[in-house]
């Protein structure tokens, strides 16, 4: 048997790649290029030899800081490009190779230029906003002053028509630079302050003014005609022009302080309409000049950003790689001569030739006179786990890794999960109509994978896209199980021929009460469509799906125990085979394997035996005569033998292994020769670059308690895990009944709501037709919504989670330790934007 297993060809994904612990001695002049080439290869996981040092105590900390500073500048450029609504080039023209120092100088120049342009633009925008606010204050406050001073209507119209236009402008001295002279309001003791404030602050501003002046003021306001851009946030802000009339010097001081506290900008407005006219003309002239200057500045800034954005992706990738190289170099140590860097790490054995070729190329390209030394070493710790996956198998490997990463070269459940996971999902989701809907969704994701793989997706879409092949197999198995259940949106079809049953008479009135009569051979594939709607439909489907769930559960649990045998054989632990694998197989199959045998015999013979009675009295009264529940000759003595074997298997699992381990541990310290536990005879001949297992001190009490817990867990788990597989029956039944309810109580009820037999004339017929059509459309919409969101989304998620639990708990706990750690090589391909 062992020779047969040893001669089996190796299976991809069954066991992780063989790893070796290596040491690299790299001359300083070729270190950077060597690490870069290894990053492109992506097959070496370095070990941090400076773990006790802080990041600021490492050798290449200054280079890492420089790269971090360049990353900051590049992120600044990216933010500026996005704020300017410019698109950086997705496929930039590659520049010739540029040194990091030259790139650092270029980035500093671009940053200085952009900061200066932004500063000038903010100053110009601030001046433009102030002039625009001044213009609106003159416009609105002038109206308040004119009405207060009883100016003529003609002068008011003249102000609207001429003040804010450039027609007939006459050169005169600038009034903006002259000091405002007190007008008639000052002579009469009534003064005013005009300005502009954010619209959201007006109510609080007015209330504060009223309290500060004790009501001795008059507050006028008017909304500004234009929104003003905030130079910092670049958002448009609504503002309100106000004029506050008051009396006294102290009131003026209070009002100005309140304006300053609320961020209101105050502007002096003369009472003379002629001065208002001249100020407005000057403001309009300056605004037009500033608009031209601002547009020219924005164009120049966008041109500079476009030139940066053309190479932004290339620069970010270069800086990201350089930072990763120096971070990796910081994990290396100098030798005693300070002329070489020493690194250690893990790599797959199959990649040794590729790594050596990359190191030789690095030595040649760096013109180093000393080559790089690359050799294998022995290691104490367990190697990392590395599976070579593709886009199809990666999703299933991630499902397994979510439970725990496989121990080094432990049997990988993902090999079987590829088939068993979508199949168990389909057992709970079996409906070939719903399966076709899932299949269409999976095909869309697969057809657009080249486009979607390059896009940044949301968390939900990224999860769907990553599991597109899982959805594909789930849909195909759902179609298969749906054909077995004969359900298409809960509707049965005569796909594989006519039904084997017919009614007792032509009317079929008693079909749902008395039942049907079998008149020909059994339906060739799946459930006979005549079961749907019959009086025995539910008992028949319950019995079928419940027994099928037990059979599937026992088969998968046996597969898990068999995989534990392959693990024990691979690692050479024959004690686990004798005292763990064998009693576990005996215990599980003496009880539930026997139950599965009874189910198959009952199906084949058509017996009416009560399996509940058989299994219960197998424990309560094993010697009692079975009577009509006997399925085959010799069943009673077989049950007694199986029951005794199950009872013997429990102490077989519990006691021998701890005492044998104790004896082996004692013999080791007495100097006797024996095979060390956890090793095989092949370990003595294993090549020197393989990892050695680390053996901890033996503690008998801990080993015995651990074995007792393991034995109790298996005995109880054999019962609970078998019962757990009944979720296949429960969810399949729930999915079928939900689908039936939506079909019969929503779709059929709405489409059969009205009848046209009673309509005597065409007008009532037309009205009833319109009503019936609306009801049908509403029923169809409700049915579609329920199918899409409840049956295709919620039920899919529910079946997915239950299939996940069956694999993680019921299947993998029979053989899978899951206490390893992933192989994470230094690779440029694995770098993301988050590491900038």
TrEMBL record:
Keywords carried by this UniProt record: Coiled coil, Hydrogen ion transport, Ion transport, Membrane, Transmembrane, Transmembrane helix, Transport
Subcellular locations according to the entry: Membrane
Stated role: Essential component of the vacuolar proton pump (V-ATPase), a multimeric enzyme that catalyzes the translocation of protons across the membranes. Required for assembly and activity of the V-ATPase.
InterPro entries on file: V-ATPase_116kDa_su (IPR002490), V-type_ATPase_116kDa_su_euka (IPR026028)
Similarity comment: Belongs to the V-ATPase 116 kDa subunit family.
GO biological process entries: vacuolar acidification
Ranges in a coiled coil: 100-127
A Pfam family assignment: V_ATPase_I
Protein name: V-type proton ATPase subunit a
GO CC annotations on file: vacuolar proton-transporting V-type ATPase, V0 domain
Transmembrane segments: 423-446, 467-485, 548-566, 586-603, 638-655, 746-767, 773-794
Lineage: Eukaryota, Viridiplantae, Streptophyta, Embryophyta, Tracheophyta
Superkingdom, taxonomy of origin: Eukaryota
GO MF term list: ATPase binding; proton-transporting ATPase activity, rotational mechanism
Membrane topology recorded in Swiss-Prot or TrEMBL: Multi-pass membrane protein
């Amino acid at each position: 048997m062992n020779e047969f297993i040893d001669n089996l060809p190796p299976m991809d994904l069954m066991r992780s790649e063989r790893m070796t612990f290596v040491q690299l001695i790299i001359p300083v002049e070729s270190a950077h290029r060597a690490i870069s080439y290894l990053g492109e290869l992506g097959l070496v996981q370095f070990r941090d030899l400076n773990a006790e040092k802080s990041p600021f105590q490492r050798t290449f900390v200054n280079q890492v800081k420089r790269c971090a500073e360049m990353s900051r500048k590049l992120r600044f450029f990216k933010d500026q490009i996005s704020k300017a609504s410019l698109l950086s080039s997705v496929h930039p023209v590659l520049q010739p190779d540029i040194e990091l120092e030259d790139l650092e100088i270029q980035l500093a120049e671009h940053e200085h230029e952009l900061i200066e342009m932004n500063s000038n633009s903010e100053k110009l925008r601030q001046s433009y906003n102030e002039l625009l606010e001044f213009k609106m204050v003159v416009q609105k406050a002038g109206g308040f002053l004119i009405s207060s001073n009883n100016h003529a209507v003609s002068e008011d119209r003249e102000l609207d028509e001429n003040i804010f236009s450039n027609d007939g402008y006459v050169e005169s001295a600038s009034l903006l630079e002259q000091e405002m002279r007190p007008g008639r309001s000052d002579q009469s003791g009534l003064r005013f302050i005009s300005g502009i404030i954010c619209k959201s602050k007006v109510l609080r501003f007015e209330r504060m003014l009223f309290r500060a002046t004790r009501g001795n003021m008059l507050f006028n306001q008017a909304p500004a005609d234009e929104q003003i851009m905030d130079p910092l946030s670049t958002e448009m802000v609504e503002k309100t022009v106000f004029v506050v009339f008051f009396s006294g010097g102290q009131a003026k001081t209070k009002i100005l302080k309140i304006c300053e506290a609320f961020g209101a900008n105050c502007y002096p407005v003369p009472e003379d309409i002629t001065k208002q006219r001249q100020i407005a003309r000057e403001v309009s002239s300056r605004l037009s000049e500033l608009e031209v200057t601002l547009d020219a500045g924005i164009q120049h800034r966008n041109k500079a950003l476009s030139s940066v954005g053309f190479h932004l992706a290339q620069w970010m990738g270069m800086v990201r790689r350089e930072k990763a190289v120096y971070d990796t170099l910081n994990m290396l140590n100098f030798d005693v001569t300070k002329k070489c860097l020493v690194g250690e790490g893990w790599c797959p054995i199959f990649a040794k030739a590729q790594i050596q070729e990359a190191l030789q190329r690095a030595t040649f390209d760096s013109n180093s006179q000393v080559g790089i030394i690359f050799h294998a070493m022995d290691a104490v710790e367990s190697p990392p786990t590395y599976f070579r996956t593709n886009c199809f198998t990666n999703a299933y490997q991630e499902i397994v890794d979510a439970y725990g990463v496989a121990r080094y070269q432990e049997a990988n459940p993902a090999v079987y999960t590829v088939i068993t996971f979508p199949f168990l999902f389909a057992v709970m989701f079996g409906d070939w109509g719903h399966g076709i809907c899932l299949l269409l969704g999976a095909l869309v994701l697969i057809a657009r994978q080249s486009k979607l793989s390059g896009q940044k997706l949301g968390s939900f879409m990224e999860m769907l896209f990553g599991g597109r092949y899982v959805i594909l197999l789930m849909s195909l198995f759902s179609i298969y199980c749906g054909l077995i259940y004969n359900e298409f949106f809960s509707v049965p079809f005569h796909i594989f021929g006519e039904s084997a049953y017919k009614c007792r008479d032509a009317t079929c009135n008693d079909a749902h009460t008395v039942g049907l009569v079998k008149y020909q051979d059994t339906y060739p594939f799946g459930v006979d469509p005549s079961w749907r709607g019959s009086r025995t439909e539910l008992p028949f489907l319950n019995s079928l799906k419940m027994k099928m769930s037990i059979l599937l559960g026992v088969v998968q649990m046996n597969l898990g125990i068999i995989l534990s045998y392959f693990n024990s054989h691979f690692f050479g632990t024959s004690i686990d085979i004798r005292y763990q694998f064998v009693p576990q197989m005996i215990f599980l199959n003496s009880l539930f394997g026997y139950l599965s045998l009874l189910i198959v015999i009952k199906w084949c013979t058509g017996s009416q035996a009560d399996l509940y009675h058989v299994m219960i009295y197998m424990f309560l009264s094993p010697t009692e005569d079975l009577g009509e529940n006997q399925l085959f000759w010799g069943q009673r003595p077989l049950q007694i033998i199986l029951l005794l074997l199950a009872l013997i298997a429990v102490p077989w699992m519990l006691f021998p292994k701890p005492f044998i381990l104790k004896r082996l541990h004692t013999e080791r310290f007495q100097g006797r020769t024996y095979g060390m536990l956890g090793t095989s005879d092949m370990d003595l001949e294993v090549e020197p670059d393989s990892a050695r297992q680390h053996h901890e001190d033996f503690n008998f009490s801990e080993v015995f308690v651990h074995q007792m817990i393991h034995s109790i867990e298996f005995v109880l788990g054999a019962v609970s895990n078998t019962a757990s597989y009944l979720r296949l029956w429960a969810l399949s039944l729930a999915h079928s009944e939900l689908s039936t309810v939506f079909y019969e109580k929503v779709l059929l009820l709405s489409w059969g709501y009205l009848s046209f037999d009673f309509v005597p004339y065409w007008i009532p017929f037309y009205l009833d037709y319109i009503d019936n059509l609306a009801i049908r459309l509403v029923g169809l919409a409700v049915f579609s919504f329920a199918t899409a969101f409840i049956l295709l989304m919620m039920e899919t998620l529910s079946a997915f989670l239950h299939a996940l639990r069956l694999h993680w708990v019921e299947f993998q706990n029979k053989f899978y330790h899951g206490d390893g750690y992933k192989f994470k090589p230094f690779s440029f391909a694995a770098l993301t934007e988050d590491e900038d």
